[in-house]
Design a protein that fits this description.
Number of helices: 3
Low-confidence stretches: 1-29, 38-50
Helix content: 10-25%
Oligomer: single chain
Strand order of the largest sheet: 1-2-3-4-5-6-7-8-9-10
Mean pLDDT: 82
CATH class of the largest domain: Mainly Beta
Strand content: over 45%
CATH topology of the largest domain: Lipocalin
CATH architecture of the largest domain: Beta Barrel
């Protein structure tokens, strides 16, 4: 988005705020003349202090904040690691007392919206019960979106795949010391009849060519691991 478009968007938003504020002020004036006089006196000390039109200086500062919030920043640079093609090995624990079942896949990650978000397109197989209740490998596709929300100062993400009709959302922070992105989200478990259960997602960057994603079911326990995917950069 160009600076001109950002400025125009901000002006539209601020113009709407000013219009609502002006209408509210007019209603207050008709209802209470003494309050109107007091309000004008306060506004005279600082434009916009009580909801009036902001001064040119205040308008410029508000537009500066709006423009800064729209741009990819320092936190987005961490996501550069994930860009590229990756070979994935997925391990799922159907039973904590049994060894995990293993499948393979391929992940292709690219920037979208001028470096604001990454989009992960995953394809491979997943072990799921068939009609007889037996585990079998089934085709699997998924799309993940990850970014950093400058306004809320937090990493955000979403996931949707071919095994459901819902969209998972998650948010959290990155620890540069451990090189770990920690996020939390909620999901519905149809099989268990549990809704909005909390999941913990950890993505640890091992080196420039490897990272490991781990998912924990917090409903069963904060460290109850249900899935682990190891990504190795494709050669």
């Amino acid at each position: 988005m160009s600076h001109r478009r950002i400025a125009l968007a901000c002006l539209i938003v601020l113009g709407g705020i000013a219009l609502v504020s002006t209408r509210a002020q007019s209603q207050d004036e008709q209802a209470d003349q003494p309050a109107r006089k007091k309000k004008k006196a306060v506004e005279g000390q600082g434009a916009g202090a009580m909801g009036g039109m902001p001064s040119p200086e205040q308008m410029a500062e508000m537009m500066k904040k709006c423009a800064a919030a729209c741009k990819p920043g320092e936190h987005h640079k961490m996501l550069e690691h994930f860009i590229g093609s990756w070979d994935a090995v997925s391990r799922m624990w159907m039973d904590p007392g049994a060894p995990p079942v293993e499948t393979k896949g391929r992940s292709n990650v690219k920037w979208m919206l001028d470096g604001r978000f990454t989009m992960d397109e995953y394809s491979g197989e997943i072990m799921m019960p068939n009609e007889k209740g037996e585990l079998s490998a089934q085709p699997f596709k998924g799309i993940g979106i990850t970014g950093f929300d400058n306004v809320k100062n937090i990493y955000v993400g979403s996931w949707l795949d071919s095994m459901g009709t819902g969209i998972l959302t998650m948010s959290g922070g990155y620890n540069p010391t451990t090189k770990t992105l920690l996020m939390f989200g909620k999901m519905d478990d149809i099989a268990m009849g549990v809704y909005d259960k909390t999941l913990r997602y950890e993505t640890k960057i091992v080196d420039q060519d490897k990272h490991v994603f781990t998912m924990y079911d917090c409903h069963a326990g904060i460290d109850y691991k249900v899935m682990e995917i190891t990504y190795t950069r494709a050669k």
